[in-house]
Amino acid sequence: MDLAGAGAVVTGSSSGIGAATVEVLRSKGAKVAGVDVSKPHPRLDIALECDISDEPSVVSTFEAARTELGAIDVAVLNAGVGGVSALAEMSSAEWDRVIAVNLRGTFLCLREVAKAMIAMGRGGSICAVTSISGFLADRMMGHYSVSKAGVAELVRVAARELGPFGIRVNAVAPGTTDTPMFEAAKRLPGYEARVAERAALGGVGTPQGVAEAIVSLLELDWVTGQVVAADGGVSLWSPIDPAESLGSRDSSGR
Predict the structure, then answer these.
(1) Is 191 part of the annotated catalytic residue set?
(2) Integer distance in angstroms from the first to the last C-alpha of the chain?
(3) 101, 132, 144, 168: which one is catalytic?
């Protein structure tokens, strides 16, 4: 897909991965409408305020985006929240808060984008942002992990349902990425260094790196229903890897 002149919507556009995605889309020539609950990204063509967990707000916001853009050709469903709590201690309110934004909100946005694209009759491309936490078992993040696993399955089902309309649906699963959501984790003793060491490519991801993966998926015309990990290979780490017992020798046994 050629993004020059395309109408694009990005949720969670004010910071982190969303803000970086806005920049990459604009560099490709897309006209971008940003959707967020906080102050808008300064380089948006259209700024729209919306709580994606609120259905009436989502419906009116995406209708406004379609009207102002002329058409929604591509959409990046990135908005999300985090949280930390052990399951045995988690309140139902905390569970509901994370699920309402990350899973329900992504569904609502996807539904409205799909309706707009079907009505236009010229196809489109959607990329949701899930997380490698959706297929790893991270303690203290049960609600977050479940919400992101749900987004991954939502993408696969949507890809099957929307394929006949020429609409592709994919997802990017970031790993540890240096965004505002990562600030709290940085304060955990040794956490950032441990993650950086375990990433196959070394270090911690950047919003720009994830944004480039998102936009690449938007552009690929023969790819749908896929979840691509943009995590520098940190999800490849295994706690039972025998090479770790070889001391200073590398994975080739030298």
Answers:
(1) no
(2) 46
(3) 144
